[in-house]
Every structure is written in structure tokens, then in C-alpha cells.
TrEMBL record:
Belongs to the peptidase M17 family. One of its GO terms (biological process) is proteolysis. PANTHER family: LEUCINE AMINOPEPTIDASE-RELATED, PEPTIDASE B. It comes from Meinhardsimonia xiamenensis. GO terms for cellular component: cytoplasm. Keywords: Aminopeptidase, Hydrolase, Manganese, Protease. This is Leucyl aminopeptidase. CDD domains: Peptidase_M17.
Amino acid sequence: MSIRFAQSGAPATPLHYVTAEGYDDWRAGQPERVSDWLAATGFRPALGRVALVPDGAGGVALAVAGLGSTSERARTRFAAAAARGSLPGGVWRIASGLAPGRDMEEAALGWLLDSYRFDRYRKSPEEAAEPARLVAPEGVDAARLEAIAAGEALTRDLINTPACDMGPEELEAAFEALAGEIGAAIAVTRGEALLEANLPMIHAVGRAAARAPRLIDLRLGERGPKLTLVGKGVCFDTGGLNLKPSQSMALMKKDMGGAATVAGLAKMIASLGLPVRLRVLVPAVENAVSGASFRPGDILTSRKGLTVEVNNTDAEGRLVLADALALADEEAPDLIVSMATLTGAARVAVGPDLVPFFATDDALAAALAEAGAKVADPLWQLPFWEPYEKMIEPGIADLDNAPKGGFAGAITAALFLRRFVENAPRYAHFDIYGWQPEPAPGRPKGGVGQGARALLEALPGVLGL
């Protein structure tokens, strides 16, 4: 879907943001008719609450939107967007209450992100009401924010689409469409050809499914530093022979959230014209159950030559990522980034809202954390903790895909992936959730991008652009 600001020349109704702490002083400074109306209606500026002030001719003269208390704002990303859904349709402009710069930019982006709707499967017999739209505030880079929102919308659309319509073939088609849109080259290796191309673990994980596994390889740009994004594209995860219980399988359409996120990020990078040589690798598979399923106890040989003992077929994401990372590493790009809905341990550790990430050097980690805080895309660093390396070494093979004991699951998964990156000078891994469990300002319930905006913000400094 297209999410854009209203045209700047369009007639727009003023919108005033007020905080709980500053509301009384603000109201005292308003014209008497405005102050009296707000007093008569009993308006208080709780977060997201809106008051419409009439103009005396049956229209709306202005609106007042609450930003709540200091503590409410500290707990809420995109707080200004909380009012959008309570405003009547039409065009609005922010008249007061937000500081220029970072606060205004977050508010404007929050409005765009809050406008997203996934309605592919809903009948609409009646024309939808006109949504509330915002004129881009003065001083913000509207084109950049629209590019970010468009990339995020792509990510959300891909995650929200159920596996019946978003299998490996459809994910490939989505990347084909993206390549056409941004002028990228794309190559795809499918089915048995994965073995010929020495991508054996991608083949092993996906061979049981009716829909053939594949590796999607997209390239864009001929100058600048080399950036390779690797996204987990498990389009549905039954758990394989280590079958998930039904409650754990319910959201597995989102197990390709890493692929969806790098697709959205690639769209942002292309739209903004970042001077990088971008490569996107997505192992797209379905982890299904059939007579061809790989088994617990199997030992797989990876592209890198490292052998992996399969102790749990439900730890398949790291297997397909390992082959893709090994392929990425052969070119020794300046930075490799993997994004994946990889471990339940990450969710236990930090919940659905925070993204744990791992980085191979402190400067990269600091840049990512700082960027995440700046653009309201929160990250939390976890360590590549060297003493845990022994936990992923089973003895019978080089590596174990699912160490027993249940401790430090996100860290051991990241350590496993790092074994397949040797030549690239820097590597970062994001263990995302890719799902918004409950609606929040700027983030309707459903698929959501995580980490992409932080990485986009950090890239110029990290790559010296």
C-alpha cells in the first residue's frame, strides 16, 4: 500500500499537541472561545485523547491532542501518532506542541506508520471513510520518511500474508517485483540445483515440502562499500519431525520475518540512493513433514564444510542461514548483517518489543545502539560470549544446531552463525520477533519491521558513506 503525506498546498486543519504538565498554561493562552469549549467538555490531555473545537459554522476550527504525562511519553514510541485514529478524516497540520527536529520527525513518521492497514483478505462493500492525513511538518525530510514508511509497509505486507499465499515461490516473486522496482539484478537457485550449487543445508531443510526450497540472490549498485543482508525466509515452520505444538505453530507465517525485513530495508536503501554495493541473500524454504524430512541425529555438511549434528529439526533457521552466510562471506563484504526470527530465547529475554543484536566489534555495536535510540527502533546488545562456544560443539560433528540444557539460546544461536563468517571484517546479527502482539501508536497489530530503521540510520557512519 502507498503511504504518503498530504500535499503541502492542501487546506489543513490545525492540530495542537499538549502535555499533561503544560496543558493548563497552554489553555490559558488560547482565545476565550477555545478555552471555554475545552473547559466545558472536560478535556484532559491523556495520551491519544482528542478534542475537536468547532468553528461556529458546523466545521472543525482546530483539534487538541493529548501527549499524556512525562512517564507516559517515556513509555510510548510514536506518542504523537496515538491521536491519529481519533481524528476525523481530512488533512491536518501540526500547529504547536512539538519541538522541531527529532520530536517532529518521529511524530511525522509515526503518522505514516500508523496509517498502514493490511486489508488484502477483507471484503469492502462500502467505501472506507477518508483517513486522517498529515501535511509534512516544516523542516522534516518528507521524501526520506515516505521511503522509510514504504519499506516498512512492504515488510509488514510480506509478514502478514499467510503461508498459503507466501511460500518460497511467492517470496521469490516478491523479490522479483522489488528487483524490478529498484533496478536490481536477481538470481534464484531452486530445488535440486541447490545441491549442485553447494547449498546443502538449505536443500536439506526445505526438501520435505511440496514447494521447492530456493536461494534468492539480489544485487544492486556498482560503487561504494559492500553491504550484504541475509534474511531468514522460512515461510512456514512446522518444526519438522520435532513437530511444534499447535499453539507454537499459530504464528509461524511470520518465520520469514527476517527475509521480509531485509526486503523492506533494501527498498529503503534503494529509494534513498545510498552509495553501496548491496547484496541480499534469502534462503526461502518451508520446514515441512514428509518422508523426505531431515531427521534428529542427522549430520549435515554445510557449504563451508563444517558438519552439523541435528539435535532438533525445529532449529532449522540457523541451518539455512549458515549456508547463505558462508556464501556471503566468500566475497568478504565490508559488512554482513543477518536478520532472523531465530530463537524463542530472545523473546524470553527481552520480550517482543526489543531486538537483541550481536556485533563483532564495539564500534559497530555502539553505532547500532545509538541509531536505534535515535529513530525509535530499540535494540539491545547481547554478547558473542566466547565461553559458550563449547556448548555448540557436540563432539560427533563440528557443530550442534540445538545445544541441550536450554541456557543462553539466543547467544548460542548467534555463535553458531558466526562460525560461518570469517572473511568479512564486520558482522552483525539481529534476532527479531517481527510481530506486534497488540496495537500501539505507529504499529498496528500484526507483522512489523524491527532493526531496519536503526541499521539504515547507522549505515552512513558504519560504512563511511
